Amino acid sequence: MPANCENCVNYVYDDECECYCCLVNLDEDEMERFLRGTNWDCPYFRLDDEYAVVKKQM
Q1: How wide is the angle at C-alpha 34 spanned by C-alphas 33 and 37, nearest 5°?
Q2: Is residue 50 classed as helix, strand or coil in its secondary structure?
Q3: The overall pTM is greater than 0.85
């Protein structure tokens, strides 16, 4: 299953351009696969689990 950018830690809101942007700079080949949308799994995807810190404290 392909990673969903909206659930990634690297997908953050940029105040300058007033939109969400990815912090990872993809190389040319990775960007081509991403733009084609052919079930590409991002190697930089990390789930934004906001409860992970709380789980560790328990």
Answers
A1: 90
A2: coil
A3: no
The helix/strand/coil state of 53 is helix
DSSP lists the bridge partners of residue 21 as 12
Q: What is the 3-state secondary structure (H, E, C) of 3-47?
A: CCHHHECCEEEECCCCEEEECCCCCHHHHHHHHHCCCCCCCCCCE
Torsions phi, psi for 54 (to 5 deg): -65, -40
What is the per-residue pLDDT across 12-22, written as a single tens digit (0 to 9) for each?
999 999 999 98
The tokens for 23 are 């912090």
CA distance 38 to 35: 8
Q: What angle do CA 17, 44, 4 make, to 5 degrees?
A: 70
